[in-house]
TrEMBL record:
Residues 71-139 form the Thioesterase domain. It catalyses: decanoyl-CoA + H2O = decanoate + CoA + H(+); octanoyl-CoA + H2O = octanoate + CoA + H(+); dodecanoyl-CoA + H2O = dodecanoate + CoA + H(+); tetradecanoyl-CoA + H2O = tetradecanoate + CoA + H(+). This is Acyl-coenzyme A thioesterase THEM4. It is found in: Cell projection, Ruffle membrane; Cytoplasm; Membrane. It is an enzyme of class 3 (hydrolase). It is a peripheral membrane protein. Belongs to the THEM4/THEM5 thioesterase family. Its EC number is 3.1.2.2. Its main location: membrane. InterPro entries: HotDog_dom_sf, THEM4/THEM5_acyl-CoA_thioest, Thioestr_dom. Keywords: Apoptosis, Cell membrane, Cell projection, Cytoplasm, Fatty acid metabolism, Hydrolase, Lipid metabolism, Membrane, Transit peptide.
Length: 190
């Protein structure tokens, strides 16, 4: 099992000088993203906000379409919310990164209609690897932890998407100036 703890020699994650100020809503990186896109009717519609350093917060309301057991959130959906929240740390570092490995602890059940208060931070960087952690609390940002996760993101170039994504969506994304602008916001040293 490969560790999700930054190895000895890992650097602290750097907040990019042009990162949005703490409190700023980060917006969606892609309109059709299941995690954050407004164009996905059954998506999670997460809205993530920049925090201090390399950290973010988000709120996720569990809806009936997110059920696993009767009246309770599906664990995979909660993991997706954590994944998306940690993934959005790239906005603050100006890097494009994808999830390589993710481990979730489900601490307590999360009923439908719950607002999950999510927070995530980068815990270290080693080469292309970005180590992150996140948690989701219920009843407020100081409430009890319901889920927590650690994940390893790997920095990739934009070709990761253009070479591997289905052509139809890639062409549409590249023809959308808004999408191109958002992609640039992730790039290192634009
Ligand atoms: C437009 C805006 C877009 C913005 C896009 C934002 C999207 C956010 C969406 C939410 C996040 C997602 O769900 S993303 C979607 C889910 N994830 C994916 O589809 C990724 C699929 N996997 C891959 O494409 C690949 O395996 C990669 C890119 C992750 C790694 O391949 P690679 O580039 O060839 O790199 P590789 O040399 O293998 O690995 C580099 C280093 O990472 C380590 N490493 C690699 N994989 C793992 C792993 N699973 N667990 C541990 N460690 C790993 C290696 O040991 C190595 O360490 P060392 O030798 O250097 O020490």
């Amino acid at each position: 099992m490969r560790s999700l703890t930054p190895p000895p020699g890992a650097a602290a994650a750097d907040r990019h000088p042009d990162a949005p100020a703490p409190g700023t809503l980060l917006g969606s990186h892609y309109r059709h993203c299941f995690g954050c896109g407004s164009g996905q009717p059954h998506g999670l519609h997460l809205e993530t906000r920049a925090g201090e350093g390399v950290s973010v917060t988000a709120e996720f309301t569990v809806r009936p379409v997110h059920q696993g057991a009767p009246g309770l959130a599906h664990g995979g959906v909660l993991t997706t919310a954590l994944d998306e929240t940690m993934g959005s740390l790239g906005w603050l570092m100006h890097v494009i990164a994808v999830t390589g490995r993710l481990e979730t602890d489900f601490v307590r059940p999360v009923p439908v209609d719950t607002v999950l208060h999510l927070s995530a931070r980068a815990t270290g960087v080693h080469g292309r690897k970005i180590f992150t952690s996140a948690e989701g609390r219920i009843g407020g940002s100081g409430g009890p932890v319901a889920v927590r996760a650690e994940a390893l993101f790997i920095q990739v170039k934009v070709e990761h998407f253009t070479d591997n994504g289905r052509d139809e969506e890639i062409q549409a994304a590249m023809a959308d100036p808004d999408q191109v602008r958002r992609a640039r916001a992730f790039e290192v040293n634009p």
